[in-house]
Design brief:
- The chain is α+β, with helices and mostly antiparallel strands.
- It has 2 domains: 86 residues, no CATH class; 129 residues, Aminopeptidase (3-Layer(aba) Sandwich), CATH 3.40.630.
- It is built from 7 helices and 11 strands.
- The protein has an 8-stranded mixed β-sheet, with helices on both faces. A 3-stranded antiparallel β-sheet has the order 1-2-3, with helices on one face.
- Strand 7 and strand 8 form a beta hairpin.
- Helix 4 crosses helix 5.
């Protein structure tokens, strides 16, 4: 678990501003207040003082951001209690799931669909727009967002989109982040509600996981939104390996 938390601590700051506050690495994404893109990560074994928690809270308040943390509980088992005592509330507790090459189960795209990497700016824009819509967010994607998604490939991020072959519409997408010390995170798996229930989420996950293993990753991990979504990933060979908590202070 420590290796996976170290991976997140290494990759989350990419493209973000960071600040060291006590046993926390605070990350801030320029140009957006989205809570999923602005959060702190604790050190392994973190047991902050009340003053250090207050300093972390103040750092986010100064930037008009929600004070927020995401981390795997096994690496800092005492932290949640300390944060709750300081007024933080649990947003959600989600499973951590991992997949090794030996446990991988391939899941090809169903008939009528094709999964591939984006090949153009327009591909990246359509993929990001589809992911936004799948998560209930505005469909609009700025040129800057498109450019960041495209440039992420140079950093080792692999993107995948799903096309409906009958219409050419992009109906799903996802990414596998860069491989660091044999570990990668699969994230952002989203399928439009009009195309759900056909195995597309599992197929995107399989595409990205298979590619990561082929490039030398011994561990791929993800954090499903809930148990029902988690069952999708078990079809590809992902198994529970721990939990991740999100806490924030309103």
């Amino acid at each position: 678990m420590s290796a996976i938390q170290t991976y997140v601590r290494t990759t989350a700051p990419r493209g973000r501003e960071t600040e060291r506050i006590g046993p926390f690495l605070a990350t801030y994404s320029p140009g957006t207040a989205h809570p999923m893109l602005n959060y702190a990560i604790p050190d392994d074994g973190a047991r902050p003082t009340a003053a250090e928690i207050d300093a972390l809270t103040a750092a986010y308040r100064r930037r008009d951001l929600l004070p927020r943390l995401e981390y795997f509980t096994d690496v800092a088992p005492d932290l949640e209690k300390l944060l709750v005592e300081a007024g933080y509330e649990l947003e959600r507790r989600v499973a951590l799931m991992t997949c090794t090459p030996a446990g991988f189960v391939d899941h090809p795209a169903p008939g009528g669909y094709a999964i591939r990497e984006p090949e153009s700016d327009e591909d990246y824009r359509r993929m990001r727009s589809t992911q936004n819509r799948a998560y209930g967010e505005p469909a609009e994607v700025t040129e800057e967002e498109t450019e960041r998604a495209k440039q992420s490939k140079a950093a080792g991020v692999v993107s995948a989109l799903v096309e409906d072959l009958s219409t050419g519409e992009v109906v799903g997408g996802g990414v596998a982040l860069e491989i660091v010390d044999g570990t990668t995170e699969v994230a952002g798996i989203g399928v439009l509600d009009t195309h759900r229930g056909r195995g597309l989420a599992a197929a995107i996950t399989a595409f990205l996981t298979r590619d990561a293993h082929a490039k030398g990753a011994h561990t791929a991990f993800l954090t499903p939104g809930d148990a029902e979504i988690g069952r999708i990933y078990t079809r590809v060979g992902y198994r529970p390996a721990g939990e991740c908590v999100h806490l924030s202070l309103s």
